[in-house]
Every structure is written in C-alpha cells, then in structure tokens.
Amino acid sequence: MSVTKPEAIVVGAGPGGLAAATALHRQGWSVVVLERAAVLEPIGAGIAMAPNGLRALDTIDAGAPIRALAAIQGAAALRRPDGRVLAPTSGEAFAARFGAPMVLAPRAEVMRVLLAGLPEGTLRTGAAVLDVDPGDAHRRASVVTEAGTFTADLVVAADGIRSVIRRTLFPEHPGPRYAGFTTWRAIVPGMDLTPGETWGRGLVFGAMPLSDGRVYWYATANREAGAEHGDERAELLRLFGDWHAPIPRLIASATPEQILHLDVHEMAEPLPAHHRGRVVLIGDAAHAMTPNLGQGGNQALEDAVELADVLVGVGADGVVDAVPGYTGRRLARTTAIVRKSRRLGAMAQWDTPVAVAVRDTLLRAAGRFAPDAALRSLDDVLSWRPPVRGPLTPAGLEVTRPSAEVASNAGRA
Q1: Could you read off the pLDDT of 98-119 as tens digits, one per residue?
Q2: Per-residue CA distances from 107 to 11, 112, 197, 328 (Å)
Q3: Which of 129, 157, 170, 225 has a 20 to 30 Å separation from 390 between CA atoms?
Q4: Closest CA to 255 of 184, 194, 202
C-alpha cells in the first residue's frame, strides 16, 4: 500500500525558506522551493547567526557547520567615533551567557549549508510569484508564477520584505514602513580590528571578523528614503573618513561594486495573523525588523522550526486546523522583537548633540557599573530553545525528488 506524502511549496530560497523546506522534508513532506532569481548567486554580505538561530539549525543538523565559522573571540566593544570605549564586552562572555557564540558568516556559506540538506531538484529558480490562492479545508492552495501554476497542501511564504503573498492575503495591511535610516554592507580583506560597533550622531559603523580571515562591515546613516549617491564608497568616506582606525581603511578597501546599499524597512504594524488558509508567512514576509538586534534571519529560522513542530504528525487534511497554532506561537514573540529592535535602532541613530551626550554617558556608566547589562537585555531574545526533542529526522519514507504532481496541477482540489 503506497503512502501519499503531503506536499508543500516554499516561496523564497533565503535562510528561512530553505530551513523550512529542510524541516518539512525531514518529516516526510514532498517539498518544492520556488525562487524568483534565475540563479542563486553569492551575495557579498554577512549574516549574524545568534544562539537562538543556531539552536534552530541544530534541529535540521545544520548547526555544527555554521558554528565552525565562529570567529569573534577576545575583546569587543561599543565605541565613539574617536575610538573611546563606551561599553566593553567579549565573545567569551556572550557565549558563556547564552551557551553559544554569535557567528558572523558569509551569507553564501549559510545558503550552501542549507541547500545541502535538500534533495536534488527541490529548488526551482526563475519562478517569481504572481498570485496565490490560500485554499481552505477542502481545497489545496495554489501559487501562480512566471514558470507556471503550482498547487500544494501547504504554502510557506518566505518571499521577503516585499512579499507578493503577504500583499495578496492581507491587502488592507499597510506593509513595512521606512525606518528612517539606510545601510551599507561589504566583505573586505582582513585586517587587525577589535570587533564591535561605533556610534556617532545618526551614524553607526560595525565590523566583525569572518572565519576565512576576511572582515564583514556595515554602516547606517539617517537619510530620506531612496537617497542615492552614485559612488557609495565616496559617500561613506565622507561620513566616516575621520572616525577611528581602521574604519576609513575598511571602507577604502571595498570597491564601489562590492558595497550593498539598502534602505531599512520594518513591519511597524503587525499582521493580524501569520497564516491564512493553507498559507503561512515566515521571516521578513511576516515580521520585517531593523537590523539592530541581528535577529531578522534568526527569527526566520525560529519560524521554520516552530512551523515544522506544529505540523508533526499532520497530514494534508489537517493543515488548515494546525496552522493557527503557528500564529499562536510566533505572532506575539516576533512583534515584541520587532519593537525591541526598533527601540535599539532609534537610540543608535540619535543625532542631536544633547541626546548623543546623554546616551554616551549612560552607556559608559552601564559599562562600568553593570558590565553585563547589555547581555542581560538580550535574554528574552537569545534564550529561545526549539520545541522539538533533538534533530528532526526523516519519517522513514523513501527520499525522492519532489513529486511532479506538485507542479502544473491547479485543477486538483
């Protein structure tokens, strides 16, 4: 007697989407991942893998190779533009408190590890989503793409901050709003540095070592949305050229083409739910946040694991009844983290002399009299643990490529 696998479509091949696909695959689902890009090309940026995200990766046996990329050791610090330390910390103190390091990894390497957990043929590129029907208890969901129409028992919308699926399912929601500042990022050749961030007046610069000897740096500045500068490196040197070493040299070591420039948007108003019908939203599609806590990717990984846990033992007929439990687990937590990240970002971007002076005084006092205060403030974010009991394992079904029936079968109910 043959057993029909429940079928899932994951829209978006970012870390959250690939983790969700892997978790579902290991539970016996047949999975297709649809990616709008024609080719998955390496992106010259890093991604922060925090202890909560590493624990999520452990459930799909992807945590160990990412942990091996840890490179932040010894002293770290929050500084002023002149180099004066506002608050010291260390990689060891962080790992001791949360049981795991903060790993800054090239995004391309994280993607490589996650893709390795999926069967060949799972990923289908050049499939930008045009429309979605969430289905219901009696009808499968369908996704219309440039590559054709797909139907499945479950759709996981991991299609990012500009999610077509979110706009379709929640057309009255205002969507993400501009957070008031823009970012630049690059990976450059290695040089001696103390990891950490430097806060100025409406300006932030951070730099972290990578395990391969290179350095990942990022910068933020208060700007009007959509502002462009032509030569972004020249603009960065104008903003940060007189800051402490090695910041000017880090900027100068990147070619203009290596520098990624993006405005920051956040989901200031939470969605009413993270599901509708047979569709669930994860990551930035559900709860875009500012980068100040480094939690965007990590919350997407939590989403993936919590979703898989909600669906343990659930077949195709039970999806509609099960997915409200995913919203119940994720909506309040992610809303709180969006707000916490916003508050930290607002303080980092203060730009009036009086506000900056008060902020720096408070940070110096906290660093002197309560050196673990900054880490304590992250307890509720980083101490999350997955609900599953150990790594998810295949459900004993034969591992095959995703069923061809998932594609081009919009008529199936």
Answers
A1: 999 999 999 889 999 999 999 9
A2: 19, 9, 20, 30
A3: 157
A4: 184
